[in-house]
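ok trying this again, last paste got cut off
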Amino acid sequence: MILRMPEYCRDFTCIADKCQDNCCCAGWEIDIDSETSEFYKSVSGEFGKRLSKNISYGDEACIIPDKNGKCPFLNDGNLCDIIINLGGDKLCSICDRHPRFFEWYNGFAEGGTGLCCEESARLIISYNGKFLVFDSETQDESADNYDKDLFAFMYYAREKMFTYLYDDSLSFSERICGIIDYADILQVQADKGKFTALEIKSNGKFENCDLKQIFDFLLTLESLNENWHFELIKMKEKLDVISGLKNQFLKGFPEAVKYLKNIMGYFLWRYFLRGVFDEEFLSAVKFSAVSTAVIGYIFAYKWYEKGRLDLESCIEAAKNYSKEIEYSVENVNAFLDAAYDNEAFLSLRIKGLFN
């Protein structure tokens, strides 16, 4: 089966002990698939005892983080002792795939590497050129049922979105707003069973968005790290100042537009086409745009706070956002629901974030 991934994924490789924020230290409870769980139970000797001590074999087996939220199998050199003692092919599926993600459709699959990983975030954010993909081979897996006509419609629409997003002759605001307007129209069409993809063009309309409402929403979500909530509260107190400095920030740090364009592309690639399974994709576009805007304001806040900004700071900001939002199913679902339930997520107001 063909697996299609963004071009930047060709260059991804885990940097292991060189990682400043190893994924194994994230505080996540790592679920273990049944096949790997049975193998771990069979391991004997001292390492077998260590496995037994640090794995909960309940209805669903999982690795238990230590008191510091760190994986108990990560050694002092930030290397995985399971790999060292048992081999890289003996990792559970979550650890083996992380930070990769996949989605299976009829006849092919799509995937990528997540923004929550430091090295992956570096490749995504700093990517140059048009958004390109490459094909490789993967195992064949079944896909959930979906409407083939809707899929073709969405696939073509997404291609147009990427062409528009990476058209640097347009302002960044015009590109994001055009994509939101396009998604609005297409969702109405799809709901009526009309699968005609029109041209993308921003209608120029927007409403001022109260950023504090967006941050209030973020503060209601599940938090992985209490420092995340603390930072959100600090930023919320400075939103008026940061908003007033937006043009000055973009002039002082022009790379921000490229970084945010790539971040928007990442979210669209990861979430838009999944909407075929429930026949709803507008919420994915809103999620992508709001996430891009929030990460942009975090960039601006860091620039305001330190008087400067560099790629490493942007990687850290995007990575932390992704860890807190994307890697909680509840948080992602809350975002998708808010696209229709929260007035701050009205299309005109999201567009206001970029004007």
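PB: full thing came through this time. The chain has a mean pLDDT of 90.
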